[in-house]
Amino acid sequence: MTERTAAPESLPAPDEHAAQATQATSFEAAIKRLTEIVQQLERGELPLEESLRLFEEGVKLSRVSQTRLDAAEKRVEQLLAVDSQGVPRTSSFATDAKDDDE
Predict the structure, then answer these.
(1) Helix-helix angle 27-43:48-80, to 10 degrees
(2) Number of continuous H segments (helices) and E segments (strands) in the chain
(3) Is the pTM value of this prediction over 0.85?
(4) Where are the alpha helices (DSSP H) in 25-47?
């Protein structure tokens, strides 16, 4: 009889894994990776499937980065807001930053 090996544990699909990694990527790391992707695609030396995979990753990174930029812009606007008399306006806003103590 042939011996069967146990089925590997269920891993996320490649696209799902890439999406999770993209969400967890810092803004700076996302921009760096996006730059690398653009350089690779501009060389034009990749097979079609690899080019499409990189393009898709780049689009996801671009969207995540734009979302983070939009959130940062909103926070800056809130911090710099003044009323008609020039008095700074204050309001609380949600942040996903973690405490340094963690």
Answers:
(1) 150
(2) 3, 0
(3) no
(4) 27-43
Buried b (16+ CB within 10 A) or exposed e, 65-99: beebeeeeeeeeeeeeeeeeeeeeeeeeeeeeeee
Residues making up the chain, counted from first to last: 102
d(CA 36, CA 15): 19
- Cα–Cα distances (Å) from 101 to 27, 75, 80, 93, 95, in that order, read 22, 23, 28, 21, 16
pLDDT, mean over the chain: 78
Nearest to 91 by CA among 70, 81, 72: 81
The predicted structure's pLDDT at residue 78? 86
Distance from C-alpha of 54 to C-alpha of 13, rounded to nearest angstrom = 16
Q: Roughly what angle, to the nearest 10 degrees, separates helices 14-24 and 48-80?
A: 30
